[in-house]
Amino acid sequence: MRTLETLSGGEWTRTGEWIDVHDPADVRTPLARVPALSAKDVTRAYDHAERGFAAWKRTSPFERARVFTEAARLIRERVEEIAADVTAENGKTLAEATGETLKAADFLEYYAGLARQGYGTLLHDVRPQHRTHTQREPIGVILVISPWNDPLITPARKLAPLLATGNAAVFKPATETPLSGLHFARALHDAGLPAGVLNVVTGRTAEIEEALLDDPRIAGITFTGSNAVGNRIRRRLADRNVRFQGELGGKNASVVLRDAALPAAAKAVVAASFGQAGQRCTATSRVIVERPVYDEFVALLVAEVAALTVGPGSDPATTLCPLSSPKQRDSVLADLGRAVGQGATVLTGGRADTERPHGCYVQPTVLADVTPEMAVWREEVFGPVLAVRAVDDFDAAVDAVNDSAFGLAAAVFTRDLTAAYRFADEAECGQVAVNTTTTGWDVHLPFGGFHDSGTGYKEQGEEVLRFSTRVKTVAVHFGA
Hints:
By secondary structure, the chain is of the alpha/beta class. It is built from 15 helices and 22 strands. The strands form 6 sheets. It has a 7-stranded mixed beta sheet, sandwiched between helices. The chain has a 5-stranded parallel beta sheet with strand order 10-9-8-11-12, with helices on both faces.
């Protein structure tokens, strides 16, 4: 079993306590261990970040860009090693892990370019011989809390823009999947990131939560995870001047209209629903089909799902990987049991994969006879479970999409341009797709949801600057 160190103050350190990391394809034997930091270790990480920020905010943007470009090169050079660890600790297929690794490098390269170009606005001034502009500045030390489902790309999405704009970070990877985040940190460290700018806290959340969330030097927190935890953080910050960026739950819907290309729609929906075993915040978990094509579409959908190959992510033949932990597997199975108990019909799947008793497998599942009142239609399952309903027309489909506490992603499949644009206007979601999957948003595209799916601060693209920087207005009188 490998023993890894964590990065704090520019040094790779270890403690006397450890956290074992398991492979969800077979949880019997730990594959690695990482340090279990204490509350005192967390406070020291903030000490380092405070000092790192003081230097990094004054570092040339061109030097920041150089560090990011080199880190991206190192990630691409190490892609096989990193992807293997992403698969080993998370369970996703090697193809998915490789794509995630390369996308992490894309984030570094994109924000290296943004760091070089600068950001601000020249403004007219009513006073003669005055020139006024705005400039964006880093906000300080930012706490980054990332989830287990995308253990490399989510840290990249969060850390790249905030570090590129001159902030420092304390980074808490998910306890279940710390190896991927440590790979990202090592690439930045090896590329020359100064000491203290990035500090990685590996530890058990219950033991370090107070030190992690209550440090007075925190200027912002960016979090991806459940609504329950996100809302707890938000309440904890209620009387503090700390920015909060939350990417929370989703109950994403795909609409199939009667004029859609049904075979293509079925393939896209399956890709969006069952990639990473449905463990994506943008995964399609509801399908709303116009009644005249319901039976034909469902038959195509079930056939596509039946063709999926369940297995370990390291097997090239696998197209549906295990869930990321026994806890997540058991949660999904409980949701399925409740759905059937409430009257849903299992068209395919619906149970654990008994051929692999030591892994976290759930068969890909399609549910019919689902009503809007059922929990499986309203609550996030975060697994390979897809619920299907028929509706009478376009308006009913839009109403069904919007009848949700969430508003992250939605898709519509249609050949009608009018319907496509109406859907884009009327869907209450931060991400809308037409004739393609609800998943797969690129690095330069603003990302984030409405309602209970997120907060006012978006991720990705230039829009993320609203979170990671503050605006200063500067007026200069250049006359005598």
